[in-house]
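Below is how a single chain appears once it has passed through the pipeline. First comes the sequence as given, then the structure the pipeline wrote out for it. We keep one example in the README because the format questions we get most often are answered faster by looking than by reading.
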Amino acid sequence: MWGICSRAMVKVGMAKPCGLVKPCHLVKPVSATRVSGRYLTHQRGLPALPVPPLQQTCERYISALEPIVEVDELKHTKELLAEFQKAGGVGERLQRGLEKRASKTDNWLSEWWVQVAYLTYRLPVVVHSSPGLVLPRMNFRDKQGQIRFAAKLIAGVLDFKTMIDNETLPVEYLGGKPLCMNQYYEVLSSCRIPGLKKDSVVNHAKSSRPPKHITVVHNFQFFVLDVYNSDGTPLTSDQLCVQLDRICSSSQQTNMVPVGILTTQHRDLWGKAYLNLIKDKTNKQSVSAIQRSIFTLCLDGAMPQVSEETCRSTAAVQMLHGGGSQWNSGNRWFDKTLQFIVGEDGTCGANYEHAPAEGPPIVALIDHVVEYTRKPEMTRSPMVPLPMPQKLHFNITPEIKKDIEEAKQDMNILAGDLDIRVTVFGHFGKDVPKSHKMSPDAFIQVALQLAYYRMYQHCCATYESASLRMFRLGRTDTIRSASNASAAFVKAFDDPNRQNTEKVDLMAKAVAAHRSYTNMAISGQAIDRHLLGLKLLALEENLSMPEIFTDPAFAKALHYRLSTSQVPSKADCVMCFGPVVPNGYGVCYNPMEDHINFAVSSFNTCKETDASQLAQAVENALLDMRTVLDQTPRAKL
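Resulting structure:
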């Protein structure tokens, strides 16, 4: 469920979220009538995030370790936990501190989370943090088709923005309970600002004069495009076409310095380069215009033609990092919360910076936009003259040029290291697990465990993100997909001495265990954020770090070789992201009714991992699991 993790978070005891709500088939918006009350009334009505009981978390932590650590390691961890939980000990003190924090804040975790998971995280946001989203290839192949589609896309985003501005967004529900809608108010007109040791996020939607423009990038050149008429109405698609055409005509030169590539850098390097860049008044004004804009639209040139089989994987590269300095990595501003990417060859999608929000608002917005682009245009544009879009200028000093060259080199190394495979599993979709009364997400997660075990002959710590949006300002917690039940299943599945009936029984138990952990996580009772809170409180109070957090088993529990994420959407798309550890995989999937879209990533510098091999192993696991179910009489299930 949008479970991206990041390496920095592994160090502090977490994994990076992206959390769409689970189980996805229970999330449904109310009918699109005006939400009763208003946004704040709705938010105040939500419960606060609970602090789980300490003993419960310690017991569940041991269960989570059992499939992934050795017996002697587990024994040592149990001793440390016994010491930690002693009456009057440090565990009790930290637990009381967390409970006190929870009583005084809207959400005891959210402010900590955005700081530790994102803003103090210093690896590049590209690949390591920001997800890409690949839409199905559109049916245009030239500049005019690109401009026409991009214009409708802008109009679709503005249509969605009207619902945000008017606070008429349908409230989403999970299992009958309303969800926090705050993140919808964070994704437009916001931007990450680089710092020397930590970044910040600014949201201009909340300012007294909210922005009325978007940024358009074409041939590495940035333009301000006002998207509202003087009477406050949004520009129509026809008007937007005229403006985009003007932008493309005035940015034909291709030897421009790609200032945007600076945003792909390590955050400390970008923080220094940023201060240097904005010393110049013109540069400062240009950067400010990008940061203030509602969102960024990247108009990419056509890419070299590839086979039908690899076109989605090639598109994923464009959405995730732009393909390096020779392609489109400089045709971006990766600090912008939301970038829509439209290629001249029909390649389309988005990239988003993760700090302000998880995936749900992004996917809801994109679903809305895709639907909008398919509708015939109803309004005819008034023939009023429109002001020329304003080109943003940059004065490039030798020092800035040097920073750009360094950023190009680093981006090219990162682009060369990432291997990403987008595949469509076309044999079945949600329909098969549902017909066996199994959760589709749990079924896919168990298949991932089987695929990994077949490749490596052991189980590994696995991350899947669960949404905490049942709670005010909720972000995510971790669903730990490697369980005792999944371990028992994967070890038995290829054993010729085991009967199919036993394999099906173990499969059902593994699926049920995953489902149970999911329900626990979305109700605020999982272990990872609680343990993180205890650790951060110890740091905040300058206590000596409790040994459970310096224990090798704790590091093993947070070394997510499988970082996985379900991204359900109405559009036939797939999200993608990089692995969170050097020897790991990023696996994202969108289960549709009769097929499943997968994106699998790994690093080429790691000889142990292979994205294509894992993608094939997942396909085989899903097919083999269905075969065993089909061969086993229903009465035995």
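The radius of gyration is 24 Å.

See the next section for the split statistics.
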